[in-house]
């Protein structure tokens, strides 16, 4: 086991290069299953979930590996089964369902696992694929789907599910006829997936809006593709600059996909300036609380909820955070309280009353973004903070201790 030890209270100053987006890379790598010929990806983060995905692709019949700073994938003899041992560790594994059905007419995928942040059922994925001609059975913890060639359909999502939109987008790219996805997710990562499929020959329009139209093609061909920057990593480091009274330049990113985060941080008094392919962030003279409601894109992202809560803990006044996406995503609250934070919970709503300074303490991460909030709190706290169970953190932040150390943080990883 490993943990992070942080000696807090030091302003962060310097430059951090934002890595490629994990949430974009995972579905795009899965989309390799639908492609004939080799694909080369650049700007892929070296993360635990990425390595898990490459292992899964190999099990499914691909060659998949890092080659220097890029990832190369090519389908060979595909097989339809994604085993429990891998799927249980990463929820995004269920995204192989759509491309396998489209390519092989069969997929047997273990029910997914991942972070314990609440219920994230896959019924919206299955319902849409059924409308496209697939049938499903639940067999000993596996979803077993079968079909002849998938056909186009008009699919109305009850909720703008990101994973569901991605799974059906990949399936529809090779389906016969036209598919229309209504109330589709609008996240930039969905747009990046659509842009990749288009680069491979797919016919897709409307991505980035709530109505996506796909004209199925017979075949997708390989290409070279650069993964978008990680907007959540960028938002996390924006909070870090403000919390530590520092000044950071974040490179390899823009504010284009961070509009809701940018607006809320500015409302709280954070000073933000954009240059070409970089963002400059500092605390500002009057950092204060604000009210936040998590919503599907273009609303405030649930993946930034824990980080902005940590920022509010050391801001003047109070703020309210309402979590509308996941029902169990306040598990970091108790750990922040251990560091002195003043947070009151009422169901899916948290009221944060700012204090002058947090105090270092041993804390335990419960999920990926909770881990990030505890690291932020440790950077701003007086004394030593130990963050345990950082394997969650390694799922979504590339070399976080190296990046933070380079801008002045006292942070190190140790085994225990």
Describe the structure.
- The structure is a single chain.
- This protein is α/β, with parallel strands linked by helices.
- It folds into 2 domains: 2-19 and 229-415, Enolpyruvate transferase domain (UDP-n-acetylglucosamine1-carboxyvinyl-transferase, Chain, Alpha-beta prism), CATH 3.65.10; 22-226, UDP-n-acetylglucosamine1-carboxyvinyl-transferase, Chain.
- 30% of the residues lie in helices and 26% in strands.
- The protein contains 13 helices and 24 strands.
- The protein has helices at residues 22-31, 48-59, 84-87, 97-104, 123-131, 162-173, 188-199, 231-243, 259-267, 305-313, 332-338, 368-380, 400-405, and strands spanning 2-7, 13-17, 39-42, 62-67, 70-75, 81-82, 106-110, 135-139, 142-146, 154-156, 178-182, 203-205, 211-215, 224-226, 247-251, 271-275, 278-282, 292-293, 318-322, 342-346, 349-353, 362-364, 384-388, 410-415.
- The strands form 6 sheets. A 4-stranded mixed β-sheet has the order 22-23-1-24. Strands 2-15-17-16 form a 4-stranded mixed β-sheet, with helices on one face.
- Strand 18, helix 10 and strand 19 (318-322) form a beta-alpha-beta unit.
- Helix 8 (231-243) packs parallel to helix 12 (368-380).
- The longest helix has 13 residues, at 231-243.
- The chain is elongated, with a radius of gyration of 21 Å.
- The termini are close together.
Give descriptors for this structure.
13 helices, UDP-n-acetylglucosamine1-carboxyvinyl-transferase, Chain, 30% helix, four-stranded mixed sheet, elongated, 416 residues, alpha/beta, 24 strands, single chain, 2 domains
């Amino acid at each position: 086991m490993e943990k992070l030890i942080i000696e807090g209270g030091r302003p962060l100053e310097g430059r951090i290069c934002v890595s490629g987006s994990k949430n974009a890379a995972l579905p795009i790598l899965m989309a390799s299953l639908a492609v004939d010929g080799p694909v080369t990806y650049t700007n892929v983060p070296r993360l635990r979930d990425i390595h898990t995905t490459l292992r899964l692709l190999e099990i499914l019949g691909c060659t998949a590996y890092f080659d220097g700073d890029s990832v190369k994938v090519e389908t060979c003899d595909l097989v339809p089964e994604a085993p429990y041992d891998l799927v249980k560790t990463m929820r995004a594994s269920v995204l192989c369902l759509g491309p396998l059905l489209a390519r092989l007419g069969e997929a047997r995928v273990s029910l997914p696992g991942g972070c314990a942040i609440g219920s994230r059922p896959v019924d919206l994925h299955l319902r849409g694929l059924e409308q496209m001609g697939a049938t499903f059975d639940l067999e000993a913890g596996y979803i077993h789907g079968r079909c002849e060639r998938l056909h186009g359909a008009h699919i109305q999502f009850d909720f703008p599910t990101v994973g569901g939109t991605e799974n059906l987008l990949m399936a529809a790219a090779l389906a016969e006829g036209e598919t229309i996805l209504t109330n589709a997710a609008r996240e930039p990562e969905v747009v990046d997936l659509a842009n990749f499929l288009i680069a491979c020959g797919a016919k897709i329009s409307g991505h980035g809006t709530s109505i996506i139209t796909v004209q199925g093609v017979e075949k997708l061909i390989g290409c070279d593709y650069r993964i978008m920057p990680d907007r959540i990593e960028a938002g996390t480091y924006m909070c870090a600059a403000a919390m530590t009274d520092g000044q950071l330049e974040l490179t390899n990113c823009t504010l284009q996909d961070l509009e809701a985060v940018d607006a809320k941080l500015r409302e709280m008094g954070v000073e933000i300036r954009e240059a070409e392919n970089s963002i400059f962030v500092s605390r500002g003279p009057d950092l204060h609380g604000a009210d936040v409601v998590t919503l599907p894109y273009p609303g405030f992202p649930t993946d930034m909820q824990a980080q902005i809560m940590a920022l509010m803990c050391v801001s003047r006044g109070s703020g309210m955070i309402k979590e509308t996406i996941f029902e169990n995503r306040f598990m970091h609250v108790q750990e922040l309280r251990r560091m002195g934070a003043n947070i009151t919970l009422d169901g899916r709503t948290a009221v944060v009353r700012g204090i002058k300074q947090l105090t270092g303490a041993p804390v335990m991460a419960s999920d990926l973004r909770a881990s990030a909030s505890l690291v932020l709190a440790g950077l701003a706290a007086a004394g030593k903070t130990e963050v345990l169970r950082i394997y969650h953190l390694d799922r979504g932040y590339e070399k976080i201790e190296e990046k933070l150390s380079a801008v002045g943080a006292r942070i190190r990883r140790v085994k225990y």
